[in-house]
Design brief:
With 420 residues, the chain is an alpha+beta fold. 55% of the residues lie in helices and 8% in strands. Strands 3-2-1-6-5-4 form a six-stranded antiparallel β-sheet.
């Protein structure tokens, strides 16, 4: 390709459309290195220059690095670096208003002209010696035009352009185009850096939240195991009902499956925990009431009934057990609304609590107590059916009896010896 064919003056160039195209590419390209390659490739293709080179600020090392270069006189990227105190960097860091030329770009031709003027060299604050170093740098790198890229007041990068193949000078319109391009590119780089930092912080935050959640879950599991052990300790105080908790849990899960309750995911764990911990509040009931070998008085019953609220209070620290707490609070409610502590009725009572109520009562009937012997299983069924619709949910009672009969027929259920 000849120099004349690469000269943009041989064809009409729409600067505004070009900037719009670049802007669209900036939105699409989120990685700064890809964006910079696109910019250098675009300038090299459109303007017929000996080279197009970009320096970008590297904040961690306080320097500006040559990151991309195109053209026959391209700069070896990665090998050339400018510290923040390099004359060229200092020149653009001082701000446009303080620049002797009053412009935020440098043309090699302008630098030479000013240096040749004695009045400029002798003028106060002309920074002539610094400009001499800049001239040497531009000549060494074969640079004709240097354009800074700012984002707000930060010098993000510098666009260095070699001379044209045509030998013509850069026009004001071209310089304005490069300034706009450099600043737009700087904004895109800063935005990408911000997004990358934000993404990294989000990843770190997610990682820390996961770690916290893991620790919280571990602590809650530990607490759960402690209160379950305490519940078993309470049960152990009365040898005649030992094993009640485990049996109630097994019977309750069987009933829930027969009812078709959703036991996938947390549903199974919630019901299991409620069945195992339904009487955990008895930890706070005095032993003389808990192990009394006879019927309780009205006052003692008032105290005994507080085990529901006490159980819910014990579970309060377990945020994952909110539903379990609700079930435990309601497992002594009655289907007809005459239960405690809130007098809930029918569907107001969680279905899991209605299951706990039935299986808990059944096991209490067939198990021996210190003040009475356990009753046969068929007698327990009759008692449940008698209280169906008043104390118990009829649907739960039917499902419970049905599944127990199935399991007995299969020989897979272990009920207390008193069932005979």
């Amino acid at each position: 390709m000849t120099a004349s064919s690469k000269d943009p003056r041989n064809k009409k160039f729409d600067y505004q459309e070009a900037l719009r195209d670049v802007a669209r590419s900036m939105v699409r390209l989120r990685k700064p290195d890809r964006l910079l390659k696109m910019i250098t490739r675009f300038i090299d293709r459109q303007f017929g220059l000996h080279h197009t080179t970009i320096l970008v600020h590297e904040p961690s090392r306080k320097r500006y690095v040559f990151v991309n270069s195109k053209g026959i006189r391209r700069v070896p990227v990665g090998l050339v670096k400018f510290d923040a105190d390099h004359p060229l960097i200092r020149w653009f860091l001082m701000g446009r208003r303080k620049m002797p030329f009053g412009q935020d770009f440098l043309l090699l031709s302008d630098v030479k002209k000013m240096q040749n003027k004695a009045q400029f060299r002798l003028a106060a604050n002309s920074r002539s010696s610094e400009l001499t170093q800049i001239q040497k740098t531009m000549e060494m790198l074969k640079v004709e035009l240097v354009v800074p890229g700012y984002f707000k007041h930060d010098l993000v990068g510098i666009l260095m352009l070699g001379g044209k193949f045509s030998g013509r000078f850069f026009t004001d319109q071209e310089i304005l185009f490069f300034q706009t391009l450099a600043n737009d590119c700087s904004m895109a780089i800063k935005t990408a850096e911000y997004n990358n930092r934000l993404t990294e912080k989000n990843r770190e935050l997610e990682k820390r939240l996961a770690e916290i959640e893991k620790l919280r879950h571990k602590e809650q599991r530990t607490y759960y195991e402690i209160i379950r052990s305490l519940a078993e300790e309470v049960e152990a105080k009365s040898p005649t009902v030992f094993g009640h908790v485990s049996e109630v849990e097994k019977l309750g899960m069987m009933t829930a499956r027969e009812l078709g309750l959703d036991l996938s995911g947390p549903g199974k764990d919630i019901l299991s925990a409620a069945l195992l911990l339904h009487d955990v509040g008895k930890i706070g009931i005095p032993d003389q009431i808990l192990t009394k070998p006879g019927q309780l008085t009205d006052e003692e019953w008032k105290v005994m009934r507080t085990h529901v609220e006490k159980g819910a209070k014990i579970l309060e620290p377990l945020s994952d057990f909110k539903k379990v707490k609700e079930i435990i609070m309601a497992h002594h409610e009655r289907f007809d609304g005459t239960g405690y502590p809130k007098g809930l009725k029918a569907a107001e009572i969680p279905i899991e609590a209605r299951v706990v109520s039935v299986v808990d009562s059944f096991h209490a009937i067939v198990s021996g107590r210190c003040y009475r012997e356990g009753r046969p299983i068929e007698a327990a069924f009759r008692e449940l059916e008698h209280c169906s619709g008043t104390q118990f949910d009829p649907v739960v009672v039917e499902a419970f009896i049905r599944v127990i009969r199935k399991e007995i027929a299969k020989g897979k259920i272990d009920v207390p010896a008193a069932q005979s």
